[in-house]
Specification:
The chain is an all-alpha fold and 432 residues long. The protein is built from 18 helices and no strands. The longest helix has 29 residues. It starts with 18 loop residues before the first helix and ends with a helix.
Length: 432
Amino acid sequence: MAMNSKNLKPLPQDGQQSKSEQTRAMILAAAARYFRYQGYNAATMRKIAKFANMEAGSIYYHFPSKEDILDEVLELGLRRLYNESRQVLAIAKAQNKGFRQTLSQMVNTHLTFLLSESDFTSANIRNFPTLSEELRRKHRPLRRAYSDLWNGFLTEAQQNGCVRADIAIKPVRQFVLGALNWTVEWYDAERYPVAALSERVTKLLLDGMAIKGHPPVLASKLDHKQFSNPEADSNKAAQTRRQVLSAAAGIIRDRGYKAATMRAISSEAGIEAGSIYYHFRSKDDILDEVLDKGLRVLLREVARTVSNREQEEDLRIVADAIKAHMECLFQVSEFTSANIRIYGQLPSDVRARHWPIRHEYALLWDRILENAQKSSCLRPDIRIVPLRQVMLGALNWTVEWFDPAKAGQEGNISLSELVEILQKLLLAGLSK
C-alpha cells in the first residue's frame, strides 16, 4: 500500500457517528498511515492535517497535540488485536482445539491486523521501538498483556508436550512475533492473500526448514572476532568522518530516518554544525553512506562465511550463515542495525538507491538455501523466497528486543545463546 491519503480506513465504529466523530476518525486514520510509512518523529500537526485533507488549524479542534494523536493510534492499533487474539484463545479452549490449529489461528489473526485490517497495528509495531521512554511508558501494560497471551498459550502447549522443552518460552514467543512483525516490511497484502502467508509461516514456525529426521548441525559458539575497520587508525579527518557517520547511524536507529537532520547529527557527533559540510555535502550523502555501510557489512561477512562451501551436504552452512548475520547485527557496528530498523520508513527514492545491494544480499541467501535444498537437507515443499523473507525477518527483529549487554542478568540470555536458539527454531521448528 502506497504512502498516500487514498483509501484511508478508519477503524469501524458502533452506531451512527456525528460529523465531528467522523472527522476525528479520519484524522486518526491519516495519522496512522503517516506514522506507519514516515514515522512518528517525522510527523507534525500540519503534515497530519494536510494528509487528512483538512485545514491545519482545524486539527486542534479534535486533538490538542501530536502526542495525543499518537496515544490513540497506538492504543487502537494493539487493543483490537489483543481483544481478537484473546477471543481466539477462549474459543479454542472451549472447543478443545489442538495446538497446531490454535497457533494457526493466532498467527493469522496477528498477520491480518498487521497487514490488511488497517494501518493502526502496523503504525504501532513500526514506531514503538523509536519512541522516547516517556511516550512508551503508558502503552507498556497493553503490550505486556498481549505478550502474556502468547506466553500463556505457549507455556500450556509446552507443558502438554506440544512445544520443545529445551528452550524457554520467552525467546520462543519473541521469535514467533518477530517473524510475524517483519512481514510488514515485505509482504504485499493487496496482491496476495494474508491467509496464504499465515499457512506458510505457521508450518515453518512449527516444523522448521530442515527435513524431519535430518539432525540440525549447529554453528560453533560466537568467537567475538574483530571486524576490520580501515578508518580506525587513519588521519583526523577520516576519524571525524567516521564520528559523523556513527552519530547519524545512532539517530536513525533510535529515532527514525527523518529525525537525522544535519543539526541533530552534528550535535550528536560533538562538532560544529558548519564543520560537517567539510566532510559531507548534504544530509543525503551521510545517510546514504550509513545505509550502504550497514548492508555491505552483512553481505561481506555472510559471503565470507559461506565462500567455497556450496558442496556441503549438511545444515552447518545455513547455521553458520545465521550466526554471521547475527554477529553483524550485534557485534559489528550500529550501521547494520540502523539499516535494518528503519528500512520501512525510508522514502521510495532512498529505497531505490539501496535496492541493488539489498537484492544482492537476498540472492546470496537464496543460493545458500537452494543449495541446502538440493542437498536434501531442507524440506522440498518450502519455497525459497518466502522462506528467506520469514527467516531474515525473525533474525532482524531481534534488534527490537534483544540487548546483549543484559547477558547474565536474571531472565536474559547471551548472544551465543540467542544464536543457538534461533538456529534450533529455524532449522527444526518449535514443535516437539
